[in-house]
Amino acid sequence: MKKFSWPQDVVLPPGDDASGLWFNGLLITSVDMLVWSTDVPPGMNHYQAGWKAVVSAISDVASKGGQSRYILLSLALNPHTELEQFEQLLEGAEKASHEYGAKVIGGDLNEADTTCISVTVLGCAKNVMSRAGVKPGDTLAVTGLFGKTFAGLHAVMNNVKADPGLLEAIYLPRARMREGIALASSGGVSACIDSSDGLGESLYLLAETNNVGFVVDRLPIDPLAEKYCVDNWLNRVDAVFYGGEEYELVYTVKKGWENIVENALSRVGASFIRIGRATAMQGVQLLDQGRVVEISRKGWQHFQRRR
Amino acid sequence: MKKFSWPQDVVLPPGDDASGLWFNGLLITSVDMLVWSTDVPPGMNHYQAGWKAVVSAISDVASKGGQSRYILLSLALNPHTELEQFEQLLEGAEKASHEYGAKVIGGDLNEADTTCISVTVLGCAKNVMSRAGVKPGDTLAVTGLFGKTFAGLHAVMNNVKADPGLLEAIYLPRARMREGIALASSGGVSACIDSSDGLGESLYLLAETNNVGFVVDRLPIDPLAEKYCVDNWLNRVDAVFYGGEEYELVYTVKKGWENIVENALSRVGASFIRIGRATAMQGVQLLDQGRVVEISRKGWQHFQRRR
Question: By CA distance, what is A125's nearest residue in B?
């Protein structure tokens, strides 16, 4: 890890048994493991795997309103991993950390049949958002449009030519940290979750935690994804709700706070994308092109199981 | 994770995307991964694997003088894992956390061909010890005697009957947290490291970091391990230096501070075990029964490779 610059607020030197740092305030921490055999799509290189592992962990912190500060990497590498691949993995992890204001300060290296990258994020927050807090009538909104990972994964697994934007969604995903901080500081968000397990699963998790349901009255489909679905006879609704590994934030807004939240987002250059509302009735329904579609809970499955 | 009691200083509820907690001061954090295929000896059950994974990570924090407070568990389970085994693993992890003053506050669950348990420890410290700081002439000391894991592992891999104390060393290892805190607060320790990669490797790491060497003038062999070695024609020196997965602390004491360090340890019921001194000359030498033995650097190998 000597190639990384060393943050000045870190007490112990690189390579010591543990990391020591001064921290005052609200610490937001999360861990997420990327397992090569289930989480790495065909064609992904080591740089991208390192990037994705870090972004995926940072997304959890972002969804609570946290700013990532420090990263610990715990690696188990397949014994056939070459030194250059290992270095690319570290570089991807380091670049993703830097992109979201964090530094890699420690880690652990092991060997396993399938490469596993466990990423711990330590972040700070002034305001925090929980999954809990939705009330019926709250506005449902998201930080971006869905379907790109569904389309991108379909393309790489079926050798279909796809727009680079769809491939970037699966190879170099992005977390919504600025948006998370803006949402948390707006004071108007009643609950927030990321969409790493798919929009459908996120809505069911929010519904379950808060004993509510959701009506989605606008299908938040990305234009590139929609075009891909039309061209390849794929279901647009599936693309939006069951893609997974998208790191948009899914949140609810207290009644009357929509403008305040929208302003908070616009100050960081982000959009308020209203897609529906919370209801007292259980379940998740989509109003699409005049029809009512029940969105069932399929959870999210590793891409391998979908082959 | 609902079966665990929830600490009051933790802000976000169980099962949220990330953990939030208030923290003020010196944060000591470390991550360590246990990989089933390389780190789990024959006969170890899931409870013990969960315990060992946590102890191993806590040992790193203990070696810096930290008190563990919070644990994040990142699991990739073999798909054949049964629910009961999963629960036992969690119970072992939880019990080990509790034993060292920490609580499991979050985690992540995945699937992989070989079970991997990545443990992140967050701890606090008033005083911290680094690997760096040894000066020639410093006294070399340890928190306990060595050789039990070497003997215990030999016993289980060769179906030799062994004293329960040797088996406990491999199945339910212990970290030296009280000792680490006492050492750090004594003010007399110039450097400290744990012995998870074997006493030999720890000495080489200390030597390398500080540009010194070591003379060990007393072989710190555990009596049970010594008896096992004699009974089974095993080399006592190998047992002490190349066992690995022992979680004793290996530390150096500034000249003239020996009594202060000894008193600090005795206040927590621990012993000051002097085993040698740091030298300006490179390398690690053992003075044993009138002979000078060069201790070579073999590193530490997973038990599988020693079969």
Answer: B20
Q: Does the pLDDT value for residue B90 go beyond 70?
A: yes
The one-letter amino acid code at A284 reads V
With an 8 Å Cβ cutoff, are B31 and A72 in contact? yes
User: CA of A115: which chain B residue's CA is closest?
Assistant: B112
pLDDT along chain A (307 residues), means of 10: 61 88 94 94 96 98 97 95 96 98 93 95 96 97 98 96 96 98 98 96 96 97 98 97 95 97 98 98 93 86 44
Residues 179-198 of A with CB under 8 A from B: 193-194
| Phi, psi dihedrals of residue A197, rounded to the nearest 5° | -100, 10
The whole-angstrom separation of Cα B198 and Cα B303 is 12
Domains of chain A, first to last: 26-125 (3.30.1330.10), 139-306 (3.90.650.10)
Q: A76: helix, coil or strand?
A: strand
Give the C-alpha distances (Å, rounded to integers) separating A132 from A64, A198, A256, B12, B109. 11, 18, 19, 9, 21
DSSP B65: T
Task: Give the DSSP letter of residue B97.
Answer: H
* Distance between start and end Cα atoms, chain A: 37
Tokens linked to A67: 């700013």
> Which residues neighbour A244 within 8 Å (Cβ) at sequence distance 6 or greater?
A149, A150, A196, A197, A198, A201, A300, A301
Four-point Cα dihedral B15, B19, B20, B22, nearest 10? 120
* Diameter of chain B measured on Cα atoms: 62
Q: Provide φ and ψ at A220, rounded to 5°.
A: -80, 70
State whether residue B37 sits within 8 Å of chain A by CB: yes
Largest CA distance in chain A: 62
Question: Is residue A38 a contact partner of residue B116, using CB atoms and an 8 Å limit?
Answer: no
Phi, psi angle pair for A193, to nearest 5°: -150, 155
User: How much is the mean pLDDT over chain B?
Assistant: 93
